[in-house]
């Protein structure tokens, strides 16, 4: 899908800029993107001078109305399609299928950009001449943070569409090169290579980028106020368009009536707004924007996974690693505080959200000081000691040859030999293992749960999760329980399926990806209860059972 993300060379002249913007950009970090455009980092995202001026104009002068709708996205995420769908839904009572504006106008003409159309051309644009009346329809590539000031206390609706980062990148590259004859400043500059755009994209230095910061801002917004921000996924729009368009209509307070559904109203809008139909219209074959961008360049394939025809395995792996890093739940001691005493918690998407998510292998006692008087939640999972031992042995041997960094000695460590199971067993029984002894570790959280603050610590058993996942997941979400509607619609089962070991291990990222040299696939083995029986001798079983029984005596904790 296409958007009006018009690349522009930054002119040396700044006479057209206000003194306020001149002062602002002098204080902002700057960089050059792959097209040679100078960008400035504002509120976590990169913009050029002219767009920054438009953002300031918008912030100072935009007066929201209660019924306003804003279609938001990162460039090349499916905005053209979402604009068409939103316009058709919100304005459907005003237009018939025979004379519908989408038949004679490009979606970008009907849903103008706040920062690329309206407030770029004027500090106070005339909003009475919009193609859409109440509700007024706007669009933006700005981050959600850039919208907050003018939309403060406004009940207007924001619809955001997110798309697979690799498809976004390829679509952006095709779009820019299809319009390269125009040039960055009308001069007809040459095409940008995919490799150059890829590196710029991965570094985050792209117009409205980094993509993950743009996405994150709206994801946060949807969590903070789901009645104001609807977060949609392009891939879900493609696979289940009927469900998604009904969801969109409901969010926009214009749900389909039973009569509309019975008369095929949903299908008519989907057909009107389909990529095939829109791209076949004469206006979209021959029309252009005032800037010279042809409408046909906004319609390419719109396929999910088209990136596979363009990216090398090395590119795929690199960008997957970047996204994985942003999406992972970081370890406090292994990711965040290992390399610095004051880590940037915004580096990881999950630790930037509310609620923030962290993980640890530290004992409960090691957490007490920083969490003193904190009401944060701790979820601990415990597993049969014998299965833990076998799983740990497999994991360590699967990762022999991985280069580990010893920060205390400032050197690299590579283990090339397998651990013998017998040696691992003896070390485990002696308690001399990383984070061990196992029983002391488990007991620290058991005491924290059962004795000190059961509302603070949830103690879960792996075996119970395997035997009765439905009950256990409901225990886990006690402070954010599933609604009856969610349960009736199968949301619980969908989460269980999404997070199942069979599903996770089958994903390409977990088959081929790595993190700090460790293959993701080594995190997925069997996950079976009682797998230890295939590895331990009766003597081993007896020895470890005696140790655990002695250590756990009187605690109430049993395996």
From TrEMBL:
- What UniProt keywords are attached to this protein's entry? Cytoplasm, Transferase
Q: What is its EC number?
A: 2.8.2.-
Q: Does the keyword Cytoplasm apply?
A: yes
Query: Which compartments does it reside in?
Result: Cytoplasm
One of the entry's Gene Ontology molecular-function terms is: sulfotransferase activity
Q: Where is the Sulfotransferase domain?
A: 67-328, 329-556
A GO cellular component annotated for this chain's UniProt record is: cytoplasm
Family named by the database record: Belongs to the sulfotransferase 1 family.
State the protein's name: Sulfotransferase
Origin organism is: Arabidopsis thaliana x Arabidopsis arenosa
């Amino acid at each position: 899908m296409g958007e009006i993300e018009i690349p522009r060379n930054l002119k040396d002249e700044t006479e057209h800029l206000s003194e306020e913007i001149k002062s602002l950009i002098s204080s902002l970090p700057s960089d050059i993107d792959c097209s040679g455009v100078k960008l400035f980092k504002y509120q976590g995202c990169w913009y050029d001078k002219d767009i920054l001026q438009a953002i300031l104009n918008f912030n100072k002068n935009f007066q929201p109305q209660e019924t306003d709708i804003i279609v938001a996205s990162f460039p090349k995420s499916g905005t053209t399609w979402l604009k068409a769908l939103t316009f058709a839904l919100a304005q459907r009572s005003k237009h018939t299928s025979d004379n519908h504006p989408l038949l004679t106008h490009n979606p970008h003409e009907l849903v103008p950009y706040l920062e690329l159309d309206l407030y770029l051309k004027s500090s106070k644009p005339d909003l009475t001449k919009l193609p859409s009346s109440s509700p007024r329809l706007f669009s933006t590539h700005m981050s959600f943070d850039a919208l907050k000031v003018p939309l403060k206390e406004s009940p207007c609706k924001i619809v955001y569409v997110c798309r697979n980062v690799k498809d976004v990148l390829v679509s952006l590259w095709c779009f820019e090169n299809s319009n390269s004859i125009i040039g960055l400043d009308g001069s007809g500059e040459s095409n940008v290579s995919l490799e150059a755009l890829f590196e710029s994209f991965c570094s985050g230095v792209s117009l409205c980028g980094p993509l993950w910061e743009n996405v994150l801002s709206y994801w946060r917004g949807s969590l903070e106020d789901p009645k104001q921000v609807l977060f949609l996924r392009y891939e879900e729009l493609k696979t289940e368009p009927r469900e998604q368009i009904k969801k969109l209509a409901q969010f926009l307070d214009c749900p389909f009536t039973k009569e509309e559904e019975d008369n095929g109203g949903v299908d008519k809008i989907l057909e009107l707004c389909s990529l095939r139909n829109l791209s076949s219209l004469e206006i979209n074959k021959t029309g252009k924007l005032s800037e010279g961008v042809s409408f046909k360049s906004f319609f390419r394939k719109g396929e999910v996974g088209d990136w596979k025809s363009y990216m090398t395995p090395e590119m795929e792996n690199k960008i997957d690693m970047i996204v994985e890093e942003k999406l992972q739940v970081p370890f406090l001691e292994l990711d965040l505080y290992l390399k610095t005493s004051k880590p940037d918690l915004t580096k990881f998407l999950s630790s930037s959200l509310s609620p923030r998510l962290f993980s640890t292998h530290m004992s409960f006692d090691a957490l007490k000081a920083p969490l003193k008087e904190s009401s944060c939640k701790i979820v601990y999972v415990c597993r049969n000691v014998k299965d833990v031992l076998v799983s740990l042995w497999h994991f360590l041997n699967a990762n022999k040859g991985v280069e580990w960094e010893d920060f205390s000695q400032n050197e690299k460590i590579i283990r090339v030999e397998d651990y013998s199971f017998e040696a691992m067993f003896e070390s485990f029984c002696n308690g001399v293992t990383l984070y061990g002894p196992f029983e002391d570790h488990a007991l620290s959280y058991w005491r924290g749960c059962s004795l000190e603050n059961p509302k603070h610590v949830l103690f879960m058993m792996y075996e119970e999760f395997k035997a009765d996942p439905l009950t256990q997941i409901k225990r886990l979400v006690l402070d954010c329980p599933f609604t009856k509607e969610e349960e009736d619609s199968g949301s619980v089962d969908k989460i269980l399926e999404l997070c199942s070991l069979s599903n996770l291990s089958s994903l390409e990222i977990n088959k081929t990806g790595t993190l700090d040299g460790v293959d993701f696939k080594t995190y997925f083995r069997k996950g079976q209860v009682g797998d230890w029986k295939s590895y331990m001798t009766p003597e081993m079983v007896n020895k470890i059972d005696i140790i655990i029984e002695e250590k756990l005596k009187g605690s109430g904790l049993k395996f």
